[in-house]
Known about the structure:
Elements: H1 14-24, H2 28-47, H3 52-64, H4 78-86, H5 90-98, H6 110-130, H7 141-148, H8 159-169, H9 173-186
Amino acid sequence: MTSDSNACRSGLSREAALGRLHAWTQGESLRRHARAVELVMRAAAHRYGRGAVDEELFGLAGLLHDADYEAWPGDHPRRIEAWLRDQGEGPLADAVAAHYTGWGRPRETLLAKALLACDELTGFVMACAMIRPQGITTLTPKSVRKKLKSKRFAAGVERHEVRTGAQELGVELGDHIAFIIEVLREHAQELQLLGTEA
């Protein structure tokens, strides 16, 4: 799978993006989610996109997609979209805006499709790992799929976004779950996903 031709490099530095995230997001949990989605999106650039050419842009989308959620939950993601447009980051702004499916904005680039596919599912996989004694180290796609069927588990995760994300990205859900588990496993210590026995 290759990246769309209208995806481009970003002029925004990770340092500036991280500064914006931290200015608007004080909670450690949401900061950790942003970091996790950044890591998954960076890996997604190599798996689904053009590799190193797309990695920074994909990573920034993951890092910033929920940057305004804690401070302005009712306005999310308008604030971060507007900030990105002010920085001249149209493709990033479009992807961040489209990851909120409630707006009904089309996801026309691979960047936008990847963000939708990686955001909710990354959060859900992390939730699955956090309740296991051995955390992400023994988590399997089968276990994640079983938990997806339980509406009471991690009830805030939008199941339809998980399914829609995989469909729009053109990947089989089980394979995409396995990919996300693999990426998070590589960063388990940083993301505090080693389990209750750690």
